[in-house]
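ok so i was messing around last nite and threw this chain in just to see what happens. nothing serious, just curious
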Amino acid sequence: MRKNEYMIPRLVMFFLGLAVLGVIAMVTAPLFLDRIGVYIFTCISVVSVYVAGFLPVLVSRFRGQVASVASGMAVYYKAMSTYAFVTVINIVLLLVMILPVGISIAIQCVAAFVFLIWVILALVSKDHIDAVQQEENEKKSFVVELRSKADRLVAMTARVDNSGVRAAVNNIAENMRYLSPGSSAEARDLERRMLVILDTILMDSYFSGDAGSLGGLENKLGNFNALYLERKNMY
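result:
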């Protein structure tokens, strides 16, 4: 919702800028009465540079993870600044009549084509970094959840009299604190299974005062520890 709200001011700024360029074009038009082709080419080139500079503000593809946006924008603005530099030189050479209109148009078309290639590279760079970051976040998600639930289990066992259960739970929390995210599908599958067992431990009736379920709880703790040892040996 907030992005949509911010889009209106961005569009207003963009069209106000175009209006300013339009006023400048009308004011300077009398200077080009005998050079209409040069005037049209200059107006189109200046507008293209303006649009190129404003494009990242309008297009959502240029937003996302900080690292990916920074990388993509670095490539994009390097391309944009180069395109703007070529455009300015092209216009100046055209105005002082060093280049004919046809050559200037050809140069501008080549510059625009190269600029578009760089834009594609900027988007590819951003998407690649986003994909890597998403993969890293997915790897971390199970471990982060395991740590959170292990800490919750420690809090639950604080009021339990059985020192063996408290020691086993504290050991789980300590192990989860030093568990690194898995880099393979097998490791993440084990982490998923560990989460399932940890959920059953958290819901065990022993923590509701049913002392008779201690044996079942100990089995679950043992199963969790077995999975952890298997997961630990997968580094």
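not much to say yet. The CA atoms of residues 32 and 39 lie 6 Å apart.
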